[in-house]
Amino acid sequence: MTRSPELRGELRYNEPLARHTTWRVGGPAARLYRPADQDDLVAFFGTLAADEPLLWLGLGSNLLISDAGFPGTVIQTTGRLTGLELQAPGRVRAEAGVSCAKVARFASRHGLVGIEFLAGIPGTVGGALAMNAGAWGSETWAHVSLVRTLDRGGQVHERRPHELEIGYRHVRGAPDEWFLEAELELARGDTEAAQARIRELLDRRAATQPIGLPSCGSVFRNPPGDHAARLIEAAGLKGILIGGAEVSPKHANFIINTGAASARDIGLLIDHVQAEVERTSGIRLIPEVRRVGELS
Q1: Residue 218 is a catalytic residue
Q2: Are 203 and 240 in the same domain?
Q3: pLDDT beyond 80 at 296
Q4: Model confidence, pTM
Q5: 196 in the same domain as 92
Q6: Residue 100: closest CA among 77, 125, 79, 132
Q7: Residue 80 falls in the annotated catalytic set
Q8: Beta bridge partners of 54
Q9: CATH number at residue 43
Q10: Which listed residue (66, 218, 248, 262) is catalytic?
Q11: Cα–Cα dist 176/155, whole Å
Q12: Same domain? 152 vs 268
């Protein structure tokens, strides 16, 4: 680990990304930068070559990184861009590195409701914005009034939801812009009821999902009018193994690392599940997982 005299963050070379992903797989990043704050990140972007490959990393869920690693620079926001504040009645500002669960708890303590579902999402605000994360019928962007983004040239932009293409587990904005923070507009409600709802959702999650085991969260999007887990189970794939990767016996839309899985194992299992579900049901499941690098 090194520190530039001009920059205030931490720069690491050949950093194993398996340490930073929820699947616990992934080879080394050529460079990994942990910014001190947004201003420091803007300054760091001023040092990058125009063609430098970039990867933003929060808690590392919904991300499958090659065993060969990443040949460019990884920007790690979790534990760094952690600003979270009540700006006005009903408005919360959250930086990209804040965990989704922390935002849900913060809002409930201030009597704001509607985002209790975030308590069960194993990621950060940046990741939730990038994929329109959701659960239990709710989605992140339904509550976003404004985002601030950083482009490759180090310029900060304000974007409104109508400036982006937003759908189910899908967000597309201007090319080469990354989320720094969001402003959320929330309704007033009952603090105790919101906190009870969070407990209920977490209890339901613990009862139905393989919590505590290395996974990425849900692997596939739910197709219209159906559930990916039901289709995978109907194809007889619960508990199937490729190398150290296993379709969870508890929830079929989770793939877990049993302890010795490689990224290649997980990628092969995703492909196998997709092919078998299409063969047995005629439905081609769409992965939620973002793949980085060559996995075959």
Answers
A1: yes
A2: no
A3: no
A4: 0.90
A5: yes
A6: 125
A7: no
A8: 73
A9: 3.30.43.10
A10: 218
A11: 11
A12: no
